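Can't attach files on this board, so I'm pasting raw text. These are the components:
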Amino acid sequence: MIDGTEELLTGWGNTAPSRAMVRTPRNAAEVVEVLEGTTGPLIARGLGRSYGDASQCAGGTVLSNRALWHLSPIDPSTGLVTAGAGVSIDELLAVALPAGFFVPVTPGTRQVTVGGAIAADIHGKNHHVDGSFMRHVTSMTMVTPTGVVTVTPDADPALFWATAGGMGLTGIVTEATIRLLAIESSYVTVDTERFDDLDTIMAAMQSGDAGYRYSVAWVDCMTKGPRMGRGVLTRGDHTPRAALSEKQARSPLAIPAGPKLAVPFTPPSGLLNRLSISAFNELWYRKAPAKRDGEIQSVGTFFHPLDGVAWWNRLHGTKGFLQYQFAVSDDHGDVVRQAIEILSSAAVPSFLAVLKRFGPGDPGPLSFPIEGWTLALDIPVGPPQLPSLLDTLDVLVAEAGGRLYLAKDSRVSAELLRVMYPGLGALADVRRRIDPDGVLASDLSRRLELS
Amino acid sequence: MRNAFGHPQSVLVLGGTSDIALAVVRRLIDARTSTVVLAGRDDAALARSADELRAHGAAKVETLVFDAVDPSSAGSVIDQAFELAGGPLDLVLVALGLLGDQAANDDDAVATARMFTVNLTWPAAALAALRPTLLAQGTGHVAVFSSVAGVRVRRANFTYGSTKAGLDAFTQGYADSVRAEGIKVQIIRPGFVRTKMTEGLPEAPFTTDVDAAADTIVKGLGGTSTVIWSPPVLQAVFVVLRHLPSMIWRRMPA
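---
Top answer:
Structure tokens for the assembled complex are below.
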């Protein structure tokens, strides 16, 4: 058995720590060895960017995928690349961009691994056009408690789609083949527009997003009254080589810069409060142009604004924070308004919320996107009314046929999760087949009674 | 598993008929608790409490009978509790204890020894038995009922007060011993609460009812302070009371 270390782990939100034996296998054979050496519980972990307890396993084994690191050459004609599960999107981009390719789906941070991207079936600002991550995965190698398998959408569709967003509960992905997107430059041509209230921003997205590959709106949840939900909409697409300035054209496929700043320690909770967050939101809204078309931005600026400051999650203090992200269909777009109303009228400090359009979802029983809207809000733990407030929001979302994103969740109830994800039976079927002894489990799966 | 707010899924109560502990558990059931193990001395009273918690919405409530006069039973009680829970226990409330009658205890060696066994020796033994289990499960939260009576012991109830002072001190060290391992241990110091334990006794200043005490405690369990005072104002009051000259303190009314 490969060596391990006992570690106290949390998710990105720094809540509910638990201790596990962390083992870091270097190849599929070593993953098999780790699995065979335990009766569980065991779960895989990448860069720990899920906000809650998805990659924690109290009293069990956490299998770090970071040493499953290998990268095939990119096939220049098809854009196919085979990457170890521990390769991060940052690392993949560093190789793909100079070759003229882009990762087809990237979240707000580059600091997620391929394994994590599959486990959460992550989405980006282009879901309405390109779908989520798994739509671009053509094949995966997985180690399950019943053996090593190569999984494709055709070879074992039930396992393939149960793994899409399956939070690691169907096995350990060791590598995946991904179809990259051919691009002419690593710049994005961006149109920015500022809106005074939520209705106009939502109307603009509904009517105009189809004309852009990428679209995201940042919404202010701290302003009450008629300007509630004011926000800034940024939309764009990859810049063609011909449109670059002379300076940009000298290095058209530049890779994004690393973080320039870091938060060195965790301050006490309360630094981010209603006052400081309101002030930040105000500044941020005022610095955006009322309308500006055709600005050329770097990949980092447009896609990964959060990567500019390392360990920014620490700013939320020792009590930690959570992100509340839900999806609802177009018919229930009013839930977006209700959620912002509830949060802006309660004394809950919430940073800018991210509003996006989703295209059709994947067939995975735990894959999050459904066609319509998704709203994500960061909220520090602390306000005493927060737990019940979010419980109220859960009911609104569930009654609207919507759902929460498990990569962000740290507190939904097991009962409501079943309402939000009616296809959970398919996940249980797959798990009975590939994990009959129930070895694969995380703190999240035990909290939500998925294992 | 505990969620981001520290709300537990499974709870063990040692002293499972305590009015305050049960009021706390009802609030936790309202949040995320589905499994409860009630351990205590009185079989019939435990069964009634269990029924009440089931009616309140707990999916699974188990009971376990033990008598705290025998500290050698502590280890097996903890083992049985985890077996009954059928998985990890997210929160353990240590809520057993005897108030005793000070006038009767004053000259009674057997009664005094019994107070110390039930209130201090047995709970300390149970906490020791619990420690490796919590470390093995990799997560956990323990809250021990101390009392303001132990902060500065009074003539009127010094036997009870000193048992709680001992348990309070033990728990402080215990908390430090597991803190780095991710196990959260808290001390609850209630003032006078109107319960069946205090029925008929003269009320002290800052007396609360069970619901108010439970609200304060549940809020404290979700927080980061090691000591939960109920009501919270007692923390400030005892800063003063702790420093009163003895000649005044010993004249404090019963």
